[in-house]
Give the backbone structure.
Amino acid sequence: MKQTFLILLILSLTGLAKPAFGAGASDPALQAKVEAQIKVIQAWVSDPAILNAVKAQNASLPPEYAAMTQDKWKDLSKLDPLVRSFDKNPAGVFLKSKKSDTVIRSFLSDAAGRKVAFTAKTLSWSHQGDPKHELPMTGKTWEGAVEQDKASGREQIQIAVPVLDGDKPIGSLVVSLSIANL
């Protein structure tokens, strides 16, 4: 354990290791572009399609959502009617309208981290317990490290913003941004 810590400390001090989350972009010019995108994305969560979808799911969870688990979700095809409903609902249509060369994908979660809408099927059904959901649920923005997108192979950075009902966080919106197109 001490040896692993020492190795990680040496790697981080030499710049050879990237933190798992919250690191953001190390280049100040890139970080400024990410921050500009965050401001744009923060405006999205006040759109009625986003806000109403999260409020409705928090108020009344459909039975098939309540029965969903991470394992069941992984077994569903992206063509499954339940999966497809997340990009066909009004919030999903809104998110798809924001997709661009810069915005690779996005997903919206309720207060418990369960999916409300997305632009493409996510690997996980729920992000409860994950910093990209938990930090926005405190009212703060989360920013991940620059990483390679598993689906496209492109370099990306994920950001997450709270969905607010007044001042109260009621969900989160995670957006993957293309580094090459920022």
About this structure: The domain at 20-178 is CATH 3.30.450.20 (Beta-Lactamase). Helices lie at 2-14, 28-44, 48-59, 63-66, 70-75, 81-88, 90-98, 131-134. The chain has one domain: 20-178.
